[in-house]
Design a protein that fits this description.
This protein has 135 residues and is mainly beta. Helix content is 5%, strand content 37%. The chain has a single domain, classed as Metal Binding Protein, Guanine Nucleotide Exchange Factor, Chain A, CATH 2.170.150.70. It is globular, with a radius of gyration of 14 Å. The structure holds zinc ion (2 copies).
């Protein structure tokens, strides 16, 4: 992957970069990810928080649950990131908002028990009913 990897929202008001290879990545099928993106599934990649930098604009912060909050563009609504609260060491960037999303492929599925019945992917990646096992 070419670093820094650049990304941003749909309207261009919000731009960011990541300066490190992702530690892992996956698909999340949980209802929080679905409802905050409006998509059947969210593909994310984890990077150390120090490797993430907003380079343009100011994200709107939305607390989606007691576990964490989401950053999105207040103009176009695109969600770019999930971070745990209150003191995260890592952030999960939304892969689809990268300029070159092909650069990072998901490694597994989480919250597969919550998957929409008509949605499926053709991969053979591990499928976890809830969170991935701790590594
Ligand atoms: Zn935007
Ligand atoms: Zn989720």
């Amino acid at each position: 992957m070419k670093l820094p990897a650049l990304g941003g929202c749909h309207c261009g008001a919000l731009r960011y970069e990541i300066g490190a290879e992702p530690l892992d990545s996956g698909y999340c099928h949980c209802a929080d990810c679905r409802r905050t993106t409006g998509a059947p599934v969210l593909a994310w990649a984890t990077v150390p928080i120090d490797a993430f930098k907003v380079t343009k604009g100011k994200p709107t912060v939305y607390r989606s649950s007691s576990a964490g909050e989401r950053l999105f563009c207040g103009n176009c609504g695109a969600q770019i990131l999930f971070r745990e609260t209150p003191d995260p060491s890592y952030v999960d960037i939304n892969i689809a908002t990268l300029d070159v999303p092909n650069a990072i492929a998901p490694d597994y599925h989480i919250y597969f028990a919550d998957k929409i019945s008509w949605f499926d992917t053709k991969d053979t990646l591990p499928r976890y009913a809830a969170r991935e096992p701790d590594v």
